[in-house]
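task queued by scheduler; priority normal; single chain, no ligands, no partner chains; default sampling; output format set to structure tokens
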Amino acid sequence: QVQLVESGGGLVQPGGSLRLSCAAASTIFNRLAMGWYRQAPGKQRERELVASITKSGTTTYADSVKGRFTISKDSALNTVDLRMNRLKPDDTAVYYCNSFPPVAGEAWGQGTQVTVSS
């Protein structure tokens, strides 16, 4: 059973924008918070939390994306979006959504690749 489906990634030039979308199963979406994570290329890279949004709509961002990324959610559709502006090569990564914090041992989605390159 698919629980998390991410979409919207692609190749974009530095300074460009992308909008990622995540469709989540209600059992995940209705937890305390949802988050977008990313895993940069290279061995031993851990997933880092990029942005999170609580059930009440409170948002938090990693310092590296603050002012450039915006997380939002649609509770009627169980979706969480990430609007990314002024993209940099360092934003290149596979982006995932999941609850925040994620549940240990629970499967992640396939992610969506974001590549920022000229």
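post-processing summary
- The mean pLDDT is 94.
- Residues 26-29 form the longest helix (4 residues).
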